[in-house]
Inverse folding.
């Protein structure tokens, strides 16, 4: 438990201290955000705001995770290292996308197919490696069983597992990317999701099948639940320190390097903690915003040019309705919090009634 506190506190402090240093460095080099011409007009005042702040999120997370293990003397787990690898890999794809936007001085970086291909490569590597590295109980970081709030009896093949992981990683990372459109919106929502994973990891550790006193019918067969809680604490802390500077009016944006990395972390935690379908609630705001884009795009094509929303993603629809940016962010945070609370309630409720 000490590792969770060390990881969370050190990540918060590191992110808080490193972010203004990165802001000055990026501003000095002129690495500012490019704004789409077809976006809300109110966003044009943000042109030139330093971007690629996700570099700090990744660095603070990794350093704090390592510091927690040095402090406590605990061993790093295969599960956490795989998720960290996924975070760094997706962050690298996002960094390349951000870099191209800055160099070209336009809002388009990698082509959509190129970005998806890069994300898929790291998702495949995560899935394939996650089915290896058995511990003394024969558990691997990723299960061959389909999971809802825990592993079910439904066993699927390794190929199907990897395909499912690709879908989850791409869906979640792009969902966070779509949500990252207003100051602090994605960062605040991600904090709530990571806090939920801390609670889930601790609970699964306390009720682990590895502890002989636990009732077999209720215990969790998860390889490294406590270490995943440590990693989730580092991610939550990194986001908290960054949010201080990312809140409206943002001094820096996380960029694709941050949003893709956070999305990868969220999906990776859900997969390794065997709560895959629960992710739809724990990341409920990201799901809602992603669905708004799918609905808008689909209806536009079917109807021959008509729209459901004034603009997608959903947060921009409310901007064009006249809502203030801070109002939208706070109300969307409320929605995110309600989704997370519902997810935790479902997780605990399943244990109670089983």
């Amino acid at each position: 438990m000490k590792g969770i506190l060390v990881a969370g506190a050190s990540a918060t402090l590191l992110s808080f201290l490193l972010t203004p240093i990165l802001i000055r460095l990026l501003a000095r080099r002129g690495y500012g955000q490019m704004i789409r011409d077809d976006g809300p007009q109110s966003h044009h005042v943000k042109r030139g705001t330093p971007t690629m702040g996700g570099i700090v999120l990744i660095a603070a997370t990794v350093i704090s995770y390592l510091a927690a293990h040095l402090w406590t003397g605990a061993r790093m787990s295969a599960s956490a290292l795989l998720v960290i690898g996924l975070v760094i890999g997706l962050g690298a794809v996002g960094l390349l996308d951000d870099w191209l936007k800055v160099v070209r001085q336009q809002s388009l970086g990698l082509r959509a197919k190129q970005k998806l291909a890069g994300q898929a490569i790291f998702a495949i590597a995560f899935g394939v490696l996650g089915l290896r590295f058995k511990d003394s109980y024969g558990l691997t970081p990723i299960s061959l069983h389909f999971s809802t709030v825990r592993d079910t009896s439904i066993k699927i093949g390794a190929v199907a597992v990897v395909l499912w992981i690709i879908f989850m990683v791409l869906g979640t990372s792009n969902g966070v990317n779509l949500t990252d459109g207003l100051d602090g919106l994605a960062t605040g929502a991600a904090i709530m999701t990571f806090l939920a994973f801390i609670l889930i990891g601790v609970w699964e550790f306390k009720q682990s099948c590895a502890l002989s006193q636990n009732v077999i019918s209720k215990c969790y067969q998860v390889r490294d639940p406590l270490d995943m809680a440590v990693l989730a604490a580092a991610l939550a802390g990194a986001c908290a320190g960054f949010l201080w500077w990312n809140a409206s009016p943002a001094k820096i944006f996380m960029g694709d390097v941050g949003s893709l990395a956070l999305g990868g972390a969220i999906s990776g935690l859900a997969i390794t903690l065997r709560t895959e379908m629960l992710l739809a609630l724990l990341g409920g705001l990201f799901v809602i915003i992603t669905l708004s884009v799918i609905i808008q795009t689909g209806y536009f094509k079917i109807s021959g040019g008509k729209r459901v929303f004034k603009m997608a993603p959903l947060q921009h629809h409310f901007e064009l309705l006249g809502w203030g940016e801070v109002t939208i962010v706070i109300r969307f945070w409320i929605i995110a919090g309600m989704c997370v609370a519902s997810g935790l309630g479902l997780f605990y409720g399943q244990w109670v009634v089983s």
